Known about the structure:
HotDog_dom_sf, PAAI_dom, hydrolase, fatty acyl-CoA hydrolase activity
Amino acid sequence: MPLPHVSRSAVPGAPSWGAQQSRTVTWRDPVATQSAAASMSGLAYWQAVADGQLPAPPMAELLRTSVVAVEQGRITFCCSPDASMYNPLGMVHGGTVCTLLDTAAACALHTTLPLGVGYTSVEIKVNYLKPVTVDSGPLTAVGSVVKAGSRIGFAEGEVTDAAGKLIATASTTLLISELPR
């Protein structure tokens, strides 16, 4: 039997939930930059994003993430979590950290791929070591390639907080394939 809906205002002594907040996410159309990205190696693409010559993918805006450094087989992102990423326990949702790790590790592999070659995640294993809150400050995610084969790639990632403490680690397997033309 479903429970009846009870309005918070109808409950005597109900706590104030604080002011309602909002966040606006703005991004560039990824389809418009797709042709430019398709004409570059993975390393050239991420260098262009880091240099501001190409906009970051929309997911980066959603997660408040930016590229800090990029080189062959390694990439570093900064993420500034806010309370919009909180779970019911008052911490940044683990899915946010997992997505950050997936992004860093996969994009590290992307830096090793030539023009016309892409990837997709096959699996990811994450170890959460410490909870994240807004007080953790900006997070740094570093992805690095373990092995980039012709069909399968292996990469790993680490996330640290503003104090340099390790938050989470991940390892991932990625399928490498030609991009559709």
